[in-house]
């Protein structure tokens, strides 16, 4: 069977995040730094994605002072510890084909140096020289030592409660890597 590797094209890929709290939500973007998918016989078999934690942007807070304050909180040890852990990783180790264009990906998600197994569905569009994946991943932040204002760890938070789960909606485009590209 033919094996083809596909490298993620950063400029054609995006990840949007949403975090919720009792009084509303915040949303923004985060960049994919690098990644690769391996297809064997035209089907996804494995992959690896690197997320650039320092690229987190908040899109719903227009006031520059409040935006900077929230960005600082997300960069702090209460959340992503960006200075210590500039990247997060997703290493795919199991793939189930649910239909010709839908897969269930399972792998190790590593945030703040802590790995947990996660799984989610993706829609895949394939052409001869590219693939695109889209889907949604819901993450329990407390599994990665992000306990700040979590109802699981603090009581009487009232309106200051931040829900444990945040959501990533992603659209990823990757292009085939041919042997000539490895030689450069």
From TrEMBL:
It comes from the Bacteria. Pfam families: YceI. Residues 5-164 form the Lipid/polyisoprenoid-binding YceI-like domain. InterPro entries: Lipid/polyisoprenoid-bd_YceI (IPR007372), TTHA0802/YceI-like_sf (IPR036761). Transmembrane segments: none annotated. PANTHER family: PROTEIN YCEI. This is YceI family protein. It comes from Flavobacterium psychroterrae.
């Amino acid at each position: 069977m033919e094996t083809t590797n596909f490298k993620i094209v950063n400029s054609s890929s995006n990840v949007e995040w949403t975090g919720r709290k009792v009084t509303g939500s915040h949303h923004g973007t985060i960049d994919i730094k690098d990644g690769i998918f391996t297809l064997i016989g035209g089907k996804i078999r494995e992959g690896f994605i690197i997320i650039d934690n320092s690229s987190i942007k908040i899109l719903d807070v227009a006031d520059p002072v409040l935006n900077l304050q929230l960005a600082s909180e997300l960069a702090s040890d209460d959340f992503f510890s960006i200075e210590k852990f500039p990247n997060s990783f997703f290493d795919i180790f199991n793939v189930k084909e649910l239909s010709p264009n839908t897969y269930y990906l399972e792998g190790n998600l590593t945030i703040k140096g802590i790995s947990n197994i996660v799984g989610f569905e993706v829609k895949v569009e394939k052409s001869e020289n590219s693939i695109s994946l889209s889907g949604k991943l819901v993450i329990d932040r407390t599994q990665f030592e992000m306990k700040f204002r979590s109802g699981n760890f603090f009581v009487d938070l009232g309106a200051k409660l931040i829900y444990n789960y945040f959501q990533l909606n992603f659209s990823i485009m990757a292009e085939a890597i041919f042997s000539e590209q490895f030689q450069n």
